Amino acid sequence: MTRPIHTVGEWRRLRADAGLEQGTLGLVPTLGALHAGHAALLRRSLAENDVTVVSIFLNPTQFDDPADLESYPGSLAADLATARELGVDYAFCPTAGEMYPFGYRYRVTEDDASRRLCGARRPGHFDGVLTVVLKLLLAIRPTRAYFGEKDYQQLDLVRDMARDFFLDVDVVACPTVRHPDGLAVSSRNALLSPAQRALAPRFPAALAAPGEPAAAARRLAELGFAVDYVEDRGDRRYGAVRLGGVRLIDNLPLAAASEAGS
Ligand code: PAF
């Protein structure tokens, strides 16, 4: 049975009364619209911790585009049913007022890595992400927090923030979950038309093809994607494209691209 929790106060009382500080606690932060990628994070947390909490909060501060926030899919009832099926212990489902009692007066700003890749195209996005993740970590106080590698830039920023602010949490990276055709599982896939969904797997395939990022970007544009960027950073290739109004992101280790070519 997944118990829904709506306020930080309620969670803190329960945490103390149930003696949850004694054991390990895993947190899987989500925007809702739970899918197979979230299920993999939740299963990992369930296997590694005494208690697992999923947070379900459509965080408005990380959406730079109101239409994107408006169209974001999801239903709390369906998410709670998924959490129940997986055996998740608690679902933290706060309101925006609960998470932002002072509006957005206080926030986390990162001044370097968050300005690149997705951050360069979505102003303020990572401030919103880091702010809400910090709030969730301080409110829930997990032993471990689980993040998917599909959002690799986010994962890196959260990991560095936890280190920089001396947060007592283990940030656990989990591999990207993909459909059999290679498309990374994402809540936004549900917004694709059948024709866009059929084209979408060409995106990870183009990222994995050997060659320079510019060649991958050209190939994607020829296929009909609107390309936000394809860039190599460190040992990974990152990309973001749009199909109609739907933005897809992905990344993979550069070794995967050279293996695809060999
Ligand atoms: O990756 C997401 O779903 C969100 O950015 C997160 C980490 C839940 C913060 O709102």
Notes on the protein architecture:
The chain has 262 residues and is α/β, with parallel strands linked by helices. It has two domains: 3-174, 3-Layer(aba) Sandwich (Rossmann fold); 187-254, Pantoate--beta-alanine Ligase, Chain: A,domain 2. The chain contains twelve helices and ten strands. The protein has helices spanning 8-17, 36-48, 66-71, 76-86, 96-99, 117-121, 125-140, 152-164, 194-199, 202-208, 213-223, 254-261, and strands spanning 3-5, 25-30, 51-56, 90-92, 101-104, 144-148, 170-174, 226-233, 236-243, 246-253. Strands 1-4-3-2-6-7 form a six-stranded parallel beta sheet, with helices on both faces. Strand 9 (236-243) and strand 10 form a beta hairpin. Helix 7 crosses helix 8 (152-164). The chain is globular. The mean pLDDT is 96. The structure holds pantoate (PAF).
List the helices and strands and how they pair.
Blueprint: E1 3-5, H1 8-17, E2 25-30, H2 36-48, E3 51-56, H3 66-71, H4 76-86, E4 90-92, H5 96-99, E5 101-104, H6 117-121, H7 125-140, E6 144-148, H8 152-164, E7 170-174, H9 194-199, H10 202-208, H11 213-223, E8 226-233, E9 236-243, E10 246-253, H12 254-261
Parallel strand pairs: 1-4, 2-3, 2-6, 3-4, 6-7
Antiparallel strand pairs: 8-9, 9-10
Helix pairs in contact: 7-8, 10-11
Bound molecules: pantoate.
What's a quick, concise take on this entry?
Helix content is 42%, strand content 21%. It is built from twelve helices and ten strands. Helix 7 packs across helix 8 and helix 10 runs antiparallel to helix 11 (213-223).
